[in-house]
Design a protein that fits this description.
- The chain is α+β, with helices and mostly antiparallel strands and 651 residues long.
- The protein has three domains: 281 residues, tricorn interacting facor f3 domain (Immunoglobulin-like, Sandwich); 95 residues, Aminopeptidase N, middle-beta domain (Immunoglobulin-like, Sandwich), CATH 2.60.40.1840; 84 residues, Immunoglobulin-like (Sandwich), CATH 2.60.40.
- It is built from eleven helices and 36 strands.
- The strands form nine sheets. It has an eight-stranded mixed β-sheet with strand order 5-4-8-2-1-11-14-13. Strands 16-17-18-20-19 form a five-stranded mixed β-sheet. Strands 9-10-15-12 form a four-stranded antiparallel β-sheet, with no helix packed on it.
- Strand 25 and strand 26 form a beta hairpin.
- Helix 3 crosses helix 6 and helix 8 packs across helix 9.
Length: 651
């Protein structure tokens, strides 16, 4: 969801747009202490909501009446005779099967005494008749026609926890109703949009009633109603997945915005193609935009019908449009289970903006935009972690750092494993909720190794690593040069960030990039080269969220660099087809590096020669397609040293 931040960052020349924040609520701080209804002993199956907005839109009366029928199943309790709900409204009555039941409403908690005791797995229904008597804009917003608001306008806007102010509900992202129906009565000439598909639109006298049905699971903050005298049009996009059915994208806007509304929607088919390519089939029956003003935010990813600030029409905010569409996968299909995990929504959608840039403009534009996000983070970092942040909609943390974490994860895993990890995470939590721990466990299962270290250092810890480095070149004679590099982490809040590190070595007539693993606080690397290096660039693509400076006082003498034999873990591991093996030797040695299968049969000899002291790299590729997924061993042997490590092939 979204507000546009007032301080914007101009990207490099290849990227002409400004970075914008597309999902945030400035009043959210006071809501983090909301009442949590515990124990939550039921599972909501269905919300059936009726809203009478006729007087609101006809006579500018901010109050309205309605009811909600809630169908629920006894979940964790052995027996249940009370139901607790969030409710910031006046309640007229509560019934079960047409008969009134007792209730109490204290501090926005509605307690319903059920008509009997229900056992575990039993299903029951309650119907709550309510009225909204508040005069503020909280959960429900009304604006009369004016120079800003071209027609009378009413809409709901509830993230994180304001749904309780427009209908009684269990107002927490952890509980998704299996489905929902929303019925809205408005004056003739008004259109009311909501989640899912339109079931009917009937007219009686001077009123119209719209009935919308969302057949997929939905949480309360993603439910929406927006009503005004709208014009509309639809786009139809073919899914890239067989049978390539049409996806309808509905747009609701004021008539005077018709031309610009068509224009700002021009790239939605390409955005849909991009996200289907990387994330899988679009998960809902339709998509849409409802444009509103005033709106304190940029956009909000209400399930199947995003609410969009009218300024995005006038400013042609393509990154915002992409952000809200990406939320249909990350936020709506898979929803953060708690607000502590908000980065799983916002970081993913922000990353998706740049993924769309890459899809349409290339990798350099993607990298440039990521660098701009990093620079914004460095300038505005409040100093707390992504997980369980003090302010859940902070641009630097939940949005930009969240996106940068995914960018680093992509760098660590490589594209194939990274996107497979996202796809598996999605499949594990389809139409449900997930926590950061769920994400970590899903990624670990996909890659075949524990991903805790990565999540701990980037998601559970605040701030970022700080590096210093230095390098020098030794002329070995006969056209041979040794490049020595020393890298040191000096941050105080976390002992070690374990990351791969790219190093670009520049020569007079070109350059080459090597990849090493930085897994020691004070680490050194040595490369024997056939031509003289002229410069070294650390992390040339800025994949790592870091601060780094060269320190000419660091000792890069060869005596301090290589002080023993060492065989490193192959990278990546698990691997699919090709993996890099690095080892170091402190002196001139005859070295063999061989690969064996689990039965001890030799598969390949990678090295069998005399090597200079230093760090060396070798590449292993599975020799033929007959090999299936499994465990292999690689062994480094010199006259005085033998070490064996395990690697995993995953096809």
């Amino acid at each position: 969801m979204a507000v546009t931040i007032t301080s914007q960052i101009l990207l490099s020349q290849v990227q002409s747009e400004f970075i914008e924040l597309h999902c945030s609520k400035p009043h959210v701080v006071n809501k983090m202490n909301k009442v949590i209804l515990t124990p939550h002993e039921y599972d909501v199956l269905f919300y059936d909501i009726y809203l009478d907005w006729y007087q609101v839109l006809k006579n500018e009366n901010r109050n309205y009446t309605g009811y909600v029928l809630i169908r629920a199943e006894v979940d964790t309790a052995a027996a249940l005779n009370q139901m607790k709900l969030d409710c910031g409204l006046a309640v007229d009555s509560v019934t079960q099967n047409g008969t009134s039941v007792p209730y109490g409403l204290v501090s926005n908690v509605l307690t319903v005494n059920l008509n009997r005791t229900y056992s575990k797995d039993e299903i029951f229904e309650v119907k709550i008749f309510f009225k909204r008597t508040r005069t503020d804009n909280l959960g429900f917003y009304y604006y009369a026609q004016s120079s800003q608001t071209f027609e009378h306008l009413a809409y709901t806007m509830t993230e994180p926890s304001d749904a309780r102010y427009w209908f009684p509900c269990y107002d927490d992202p952890s509980d998704k109703a299996d489905s929902a129906r929303v019925t809205i009565k408005v004056p003739n000439g008004f259109t009311a949009g909501s989640n899912g598909l339109l079931q009917s639109n009937t007219t009686i006298g001077d009123s119209s009633t719209f009935i919308w049905f969302e057949r997929n699971p939905i949480t309360t903050y993603l439910l929406v109603v927006t009503a005004s005298k709208y014009s509309s049009f639809s786009q139809f996009v073919n899914s890239i997945y067989p049978p390539n059915e049409l996806i309808e994208i509905q747009h609701y806007f004021w008539k005077s915005d018709s031309t610009q509304a068509f224009y700002v929607a021009r790239n939605l088919p390409t955005m849909m193609q991009c996200f289907e390519t990387y994330y899988g089939k679009y998960p809902f029956a339709k998509y849409g935009h409802a444009y509103v003003r005033p709106f304190s935010f940029g956009g909000m990813e209400h399930q199947t019908l995003s609410t969009i600030n009218r300024s995005w029409i006038t400013n042609d905010s393509q990154s915002g449009i992409a952000h809200e569409l990406a939320h249909m996968w990350w936020g709506d299909l898979v929803t953060c289970e708690t607000w502590k995990d908000i980065w799983l929504n916002e970081g993913f959608a922000t990353f998706s903006e740049d993924l769309y840039r890459e899809f349409t403009q290339g990798k350099e534009v993607y990298l440039s935009s990521m660098t701009a996000k990093a620079n914004y983070y460095f300038s505005n970092n409040p100093g707390y972690a992504i997980y369980n942040p003090a302010y859940i909609f902070n641009a630097s943390i939940s949005y930009y750092k969240g996106a940068l974490v995914l960018n680093m994860m992509r760098f660590v895993l490589g594209d194939s494993l990274f996107f497979k990890s996202l796809m598996d995470y999605k499949l594990n939590h389809l139409y449900s909720t997930a926590t950061t721990n769920d994400f970590k466990n899903s990624v670990s299962a996909t890659i075949g190794s524990d991903f805790s270290y990565f999540i701990n250092q980037w998601v559970h810890q605040p701030n970022h690593p700080q590096y210093v480095y230095n390098w020098n070149v030794m002329d070995n004679g006969a056209g041979s040069y040794t490049l020595n590099i020393f890298l040191k982490q000096k941050q105080t809040h976390y002992p070690l960030y374990k990351m791969p590190f790219e190093i670009k070595i520049q020569f007079a007539n070109g350059d080459t990039t090597v990849r090493v693993i930085n897994d020691v606080i004070d680490q050194s690397f040595s490369f024997v080269l056939s031509k003289q290096p002229t410069n070294v660039v650390m992390d040339p693509n800025n994949y790592i969220l870091k601060q780094i400076n060269r320190d000419l006082t660091l000792d890069t003498g060869s005596s301090s660099l290589i002080n023993g034999f060492y065989l490193y873990q192959n990278y990546p591991n698990p691997f699919n087809g090709n993996s890099n093996i690095k080892f170091q030797i402190p002196r001139l040695s005859h070295v063999t590096l061989k690969v064996h299968d689990i039965l001890g049969k030799e598969i390949a000899t990678l090295v069998d020669e005399v090597l200079e002291p230093g760090i060396h790299n070798s590449s292993f590729r599975i020799p033929n397609s007959a090999f299936t997924s499994g465990v292999f061993f690689y062994q480094l042997r010199t006259g005085s040293y033998v070490e064996t490590k395990k690697m995993v092939l995953m096809k």
